Amino acid sequence: MTDPLLIFDVILGLAIVALAVAVLAMHDRFAMIVLFIVFGLLSALAWVRLSAPDVALAEAAIGTGLTGALLLTTLHHIRATPPAPVPVPAGAIIANLGLCGLIFGGLVVAFLSTPLQAPGLALPVAQNMEASGVAHPVTAVLLNFRAYDTLMEVVVLLAAIVAVWMVERGTAQAPSPVMGEIYRGFARLALPAIVIIGTYLLWVGAYAPGGAFQGGAVLAAVGLLLLLSRLYRPQPAHRPLARLGFVLGTAVFAGIALLVASGGRVPFEYPAAHAKTLILLIEGMVTISIAVTLAALFHGREPEYASVSENHK
Amino acid sequence: MIPALSIILIVLLLATLGGLIRVFRGPEPAERMLAAQLFGTASVAMLLILSQVMEMPALLDVALVFALLAAVTLVCFVVLAAKEDR
User: Fold this and answer.
1) A137 lies within 8 A of chain B by CB
2) Residue A68's domain spans which residues?
3) List of chain A residues whose C-beta atoms are within 8 Å of the C-beta of residue B10
C-alpha cells in the first residue's frame, strides 16, 4: 500500500505542469490571469509539501493575492486588442526547442551530479543560531548570515517603483483608470483583520515562518483595499511621504550595515547583544517599505495634480 | 499515518481540479473568477488538513493569508468588472 500522500503529491505535481502549459496555450487574456492565480495557489501547496512553509507564505501573499490584483489592473489598463498571432517560422521553433533542451539537459546533469546525502548548510546554520539574535533559521539566514542578498532584494522593489513613476511621467496624458463602486462595508471589516495579520507575520518571523516580505505583502493588501474602495485617494501632496516610505527600508538596512562596519566589523556582522533589536528594526522598516511600494505599484502612477498640469516637474 | 485525512486531501484536490473546466470554458469572466475562488477556498481546507498531517502549525498562518488575500483579488475583479459594464 503506497502512502496516500504520495498520490496527492503526484497529482499536485502533474496539475502544476499542466497548468503551466495551459497558461501559455490560452488565448483569452483574462483566462490566462485566472489560470495564473490558480497556478500560484497550487505552487504554494507544493512548497508546503516540500516542507518550506516560509516560501509557501510568500507565495500565498505575493503570488496569489497581489500578483492577481496587479495583473487584473494591468489588463484593465491595456485598451488595445491583441494583434492576430503571427505564424512563427519553423527555424525559430527548432532553435527554441534546442535551447530549452540544453537547459533541461543541464538541469538533469546538475540534479544527477548532486551527492544524495549532502549535509548542506543546515548544520552550520544550526550551530550559529545563538549568534544570530533570532530563533527561526530562515530569518537568521535572510537577515543576518546572508543579509546582503536581502538588501539587494529590497533594492529591486525600490528600483521597480522608481521606474514606474518615471515611465508614468513620460505618459502623463494617459487618462486615470475609472473604477466601479464597491461595498465599503467589506473594506471596513477586512482592513483591521489584515493589519493585525500582517503585523503578526512580521513579529512571528523571529521564531517561526513569517517575516518582512510576507508581512509587507499582506499589509500591501491594506493599501490595495483602500485604493479600490477609494477610502484613500492618492494626493500629489502625499508624494514626499510616499518617497520616504519607498526608501525607508533600504536606507535603514544599509545605514545599520554601515554603522556596524564603522565599528570595525564586517558590514552585516551585528553585535550579538543587539542582534535581535537591530533585526527587528530592519524588518519593521523593510515591511513598511514593501507594503507602501507594492501598493504604489498597484496604483501604477505618480499622483498628479488633476487639472493644473501646467507646472510640470 | 492518518490515511483518512490523506484521502480527504486527494478528494479535495481532485474536486477543485474539476473546477478547472469552468476556468477553461468560461465564457463569462465572472465564471472563471469564481472557479479560481473555489480553488482558494479548497486550498485553505487542504492547508488545514496538511497542518495536521505534516504536524506543521505554521501552515495555519499560510491558510489565514490565503483566506484574506483571495478576497482582495475578488474585490479587485469586481471593481474593474463594474467599469466594463457601463
Assistant:
1) no
2) 1-78
3) 4, 7-8, 11
Question: Looking at the structure, do residues A29 and A177 belong to the same domain, yes or no?
Answer: no
Clarify whether residues A152 and A296 are in a common domain. Answer: yes
Q: Quick check: is A114 in a domain?
A: no
A107 is a domain residue: no
Q: What ipTM goes with this model?
A: 0.88
**Please, which residues have CB within 8 angstroms of residue B16's CB and are 6 or more apart in sequence?**
B38, B39, B42, B43
Residues A197, A56 share a domain: no
In a domain, A88, yes or no: no
Domain that holds residue B69: 3-85
> What's the gap in Å between the CA of A173 and the closest CA on chain B?
20
Place of cell 485525512: B5
What would the pLDDT profile of A143-178 be if each residue is shown by its tens digit? 777 778 888 888 888 888 888 888 766 554 555 555
Tens digit of pLDDT for each residue in A203-255? 887 777 777 788 888 888 888 888 877 777 777 778 888 888 888 888 888 88
Cβ pair A187, A231 in contact under 8 A? yes
Total number of domains constituting chain A: 2
Quote the CA–CA distance of A17 and A97 in Å, as a whole number. Answer: 17
